[in-house]
Write a structure and sequence with these properties.
CATH architecture: 7 Propeller
Number of domains: 1
Mean pLDDT: 90
Shape: globular
CATH class: Mainly Beta
Number of strands: 34
Strand order of the largest sheet: 1-4-5-6-7
Number of helices: 2
Low-confidence stretches: 1-25
Radius of gyration: 20 Å
Helix content: under 10%
Structural class: mainly beta
């Protein structure tokens, strides 16, 4: 199993779609397959804390709300630091013991200013299984191979000097085939662009509304056509991934923070509460809308015919993904920015307050508060990114550290 991390991405994704146990152990992109934050892992610990099922804890070279990603036996994470947040780090660690394999440092070329709670390393990197594409709030984009060798880099703000806003950018890139998509929506130079992942050259670029959005693009295939969903504060747009041509669009009141998720042939969009569209041979059509299922700062999680939405104060609502009818509601508590992970019938939460919580979503409970089966505080910690699940373990980054939780000691 020495070179598992070099499995081609196309093989990984096909196997992931089939829920292969092998892939469930070896690969994790941002919020999992199709942005659903759902993992096929069954052996994750349900008791997580500073001294509970902690395999290792590694200090990072800088801060960041970005999430870790896993390819084979390596976990990758971005960080930023320096008085001006202009030092950009991409780090690679061994899944087994957290040993640093390589680390690269770059200097930002774009605007680095962001909210004190955030950092330049807000977007989560993406991968095709052979390269890492790391994007930062300063609109600096780097392509490295899995051994840390730089293939190309671009400062997207060179052509768009007004791109950025005071709280910082955090839309994460997405890659499929030979195309990488970056969404740069703000009050200044606002645009979305497709980039050739091999060369770093622009394939297409489209102007977007001059308004802040932190949602990430979502790539999917419809009737042998590759598509990309772009969402903002006032609309959701589906474009042809090859050309940028608009295929479908709906205006409405959107939430510019959470991202959309796909389950089978349906997309769950945080627009006018929750808007669900179905795609296929006959095109794209809206099939459901519920104003009662409006997302907060966290993206919806969809699996097994259920949609989970997360409101302020840690309110969790489970509803039918088909009808939007509420099934149960409970409270986790705390201030949350991270989208929880669903695995083995449990939702794993990490809060800005430094608390890890585990909620059981299966089974019937007379008191819905009994679903909260574990909560543990991490002293002086802040969790802003989303967890990753791979190799029988849970990976999470705080503002300062990268954690691995596992039932096994290594």
């Amino acid at each position: 199993m020495k070179n598992q991390y070099r499995i081609p991405f196309s093989v990984l994704m096909v196997a992931a779609f089939l829920q292969s146990p092998l892939v469930a152990q070896e690969f994790w992109a941002f919020r999992g397959l199709n942005g659903g934050s759902v993992s096929a892992e069954q052996g994750l610990p349900v008791e997580i804390g500073p001294n509970q099922n902690l395999a290792w804890k590694i200090e990072l070279p800088g801060r960041g709300p970005s999430s870790p990603i896993v390819v084979g036996d390596r976990v990758f994470v971005t960080s930023s630091g320096g008085p001006k947040e202009d030092q950009l780090f991409i780090s690679c660690f061994a899944v087994r013991d957290g040993a640093l394999i390589w680390q690269r440092r770059f200097l930002a070329t774009g605007r680095c200013f962001c909210h004190p709670l955030s950092a330049n390393a807000a977007p989560t990197p993406c991968t095709d299984g052979e390269s890492i594409f790391a994007f930062f709030s300063s609109n600096d984009l780097f392509c490295l191979d899995l051994d840390g060798n730089l293939k190309w880099c671009r400062g997207l703000a060179v052509d768009h000097p007004k791109a950025g806003h005071d709280t910082g950018m955090s839309s994460s890139p997405a890659v499929q085939g030979d195309i990488l998509v970056c969404q740069v929506e703000n009050q200044g130079d606002s645009f979305a662009t497709a980039i050739d992942k091999r060369t770093g050259k622009t394939i297409w670029e489209i102007e977007r509304d001059k308004d802040a959005s932190w949602a990430s693009p979502l790539i999917f295939e419809m009737a042998n056509q590759r598509c990309c969903l772009l969402q903002s504060a006032a609309k959701a747009t589906i474009v042809n991934l090859e050309t940028g041509e608009t295929l479908w669009e709906k205006e409405g009141r959107g939430n510019p923070i959470p991202s959309s998720a796909i389950d089978l042939n349906r997309i769950y969009i945080p627009l006018d509460g929750l808007t669900v569209v179905e795609f296929g041979e006959d095109g794209i059509r809206e099939v459901m809308n519920s104003t009662k299922l409006a997302a907060g700062s966290q993206s919806n999680v969809v699996a097994n015919g259920m949609v989970y939405t997360f409101g302020r104060g840690g309110i969790v609502t489970c509803a039918s993904a088909a009808t939007g009818d509420e099934i149960w509601k409970t409270r986790v508590g705390g201030q949350h920015w991270t989208t929880p992970l669903l695995a083995g019938g449990h939702l794993y939460f990490f809060s800005q307050d430094g608390t890890a919580s585990v909620l059981q979503v299966t089974g019937d409970f007379q008191q819905q508060n009994d679903r909260l089966i574990h909560a543990e505080d991490f002293e002086d910690e802040v969790f802003l990114g989303s967890p990753a699940a791979a190799n029988g373990a849970l990976f999470m980054r705080s503002d300062r550290y990268l954690y691995k939780f596992s039932k096994d000691p290594v």
